[in-house]
Specification:
TIM Barrel; GI Alpha 1, domain 2-like; two-stranded antiparallel ribbon
Length: 429
């Protein structure tokens, strides 16, 4: 069975504008919003999890690959979205989580992870072997040959697992010109676009290793390479896409007709910049923190409306609940947020890095969200109050495009972001 991502390559080869958004998230409300939007379009939806989110030991979500599959499918069922149009992806799949272990042990763990992912139905795999392992030379750059060798070994494991289960063929992404999962820890004024030389070296090394391993026929399933096209975000700033700066890199794709680029950290780019990226060959747009940032915005806005309509003793006060949980458990944000106590407090709420996403599944936070929505079950939100705190949703309610119900209003803030990515990847505007 052909993978829909191959269709992107086919369409681009025929001169069509074509791409796909990769939604890297494990948040149930976000995924619900994505599926709700996609029901109206009939699109395929690519949902990805990273190796540190989901692995054979549970990751920070507590989910193994099959658990993540069942979790995503349950949300699809709840929203009435066709499971057959869900593509499950694995991001940074390799020894990342075990980089403090010797290579043999780390790679064995990575093999187990990839085997479980493919058997669970993951059909878009980013093979990432770019990180040094415990017994790699400390003062030497990890060579393209070592990276490609490890990647080829992991691809063989994927193919062995695929032969056991069949179905849609997996496609693979190689390369890792991005920060580690979770985002940049420091603002980077010296962000550099991937050089043509480095891109060509990555492709050449992988091709050579595929040949050595006798799996060169699988090169056709390598559809993309992760590059740094000059986009990134940090705590306060966004590096916007500059197509002139990326022109040299993007033009090289003419010599590699079977490949596209995958752009990580496309969060917070404007819809126009996102479309430019797809036009230029960065046809897989990965987005993660911006999704939960939009969710948090919606929850904060609804909380402001709650303050106007609900007695203080009955309020969920989601912002206060979030702050309480984050300050009590700082390990997921303290390396990222710096400055005075006030600056750190602002970052915990409003930073582009959106470290609050790591706390959304905490029982206290889930209880606060549930209470927030419940407080609006028997309330009618005055139009002027909705206009004040959720003006974009107000406009959509006025035009009959959205119901003025709490859950739907919050989800809509995510849907508006998803619409930007749809604008970027579709042929029609």
């Amino acid at each position: 069975m052909n993978n829909p991502i191959h269709t992107i390559l086919h369409n681009r080869h025929n001169g069509k504008h074509s791409g796909i958004a990769s939604f890297c998230t494990a948040n149930d409300l976000v995924i619900e919003a994505i599926f709700s939007q996609a029901k109206t379009s009939g699109d395929y939806v690519l949902i990805e999890g990273t190796a540190n989110q989901i692995n054979q030991f549970g990751g920070y979500t507590g989910m193994k690959p099959s658990d993540f599959r069942d979790y995503v499918y349950s949300i699809a069922d709840r929203t009435g979205f066709d499971r057959s149009r869900v593509i499950l992806g694995g991001d940074h799949m390799g020894p990342l989580v075990w980089s403090d272990l010797p290579a043999e042990q780390a790679m064995n763990n990575a093999k187990d992870l990839l085997r479980l992912c493919v058997k669970a139905g993951f059909r878009k795999i980013h093979l990432d072997t770019s990180m040094k392992l415990a017994d790699d030379p400390v003062n030497e750059r990890l060579s393209d040959e070592v990276i490609a060798e490890r990647g080829a070994v992991l691809l063989e494991v994927c193919e062995e697992a695929y032969r056991e289960v069949g179905g849609m063929r997996p496609v693979y992404i190689i390369g890792s010109e991005v920060p580690i999962p979770g985002g940049a820890q420091e603002e980077d004024a010296g962000l550099q676009v991937t050089s043509v030389k480095d891109f060509a070296a990555t492709v050449s090394a992988y091709r050579e290793k595929f040949t050595q391993h006798g799996i060169y026929e699988r090169w056709n399933d390598v559809v993309g390479v992760v590059v740094q096209p000059g986009v990134e975000f940090g705590d306060k700033d966004v590096h916007e896409y500059d197509r002139d700066a990326a022109k040299g890199l993007c033009s090289v794709l003419e010599d590699y007709p079977g490949l596209i680029f995958e752009g990580h950290s496309t969060d917070y780019q404007t819809r126009e910049k996102l479309r430019e990226m797809v036009e230029d060959g960065i046809a897989i747009l990965k987005v993660g923190p911006a999704l939960t940032f939009a969710l948090r915005e919606g929850l904060f806005a609804l909380s402001m409306i709650e303050r106007e309509l609900v007695p203080e003793s009955q309020r969920a006060d989601f912002p206060a609940a979030l702050e309480s949980v984050m300050t009590a458990n700082p390990k997921n944000w303290q390396k990222y947020y710096h400055g005075s106590e006030h600056e750190q407090a602002l970052a915990r709420k409003y930073s582009y890095s959106d470290r609050c996403r790591y706390y959304m599944t905490q029982p206290e936070i889930q209880a606060s969200i549930t209470k927030l929505f419940a407080n609006f079950e028997n309330l009618e939100i005055p139009a002027g109050l909705l206009s004040q705190y959720m003006p974009r949703q107000y406009d959509r309610v006025r035009h009959g495009l959205l119901e003025a119900r709490a859950r739907e209003l919050v989800k809509d803030n995510v849907i508006l972001l998803v619409n930007d990515y749809n604008y970027a990847v579709r042929e029609e505007i």
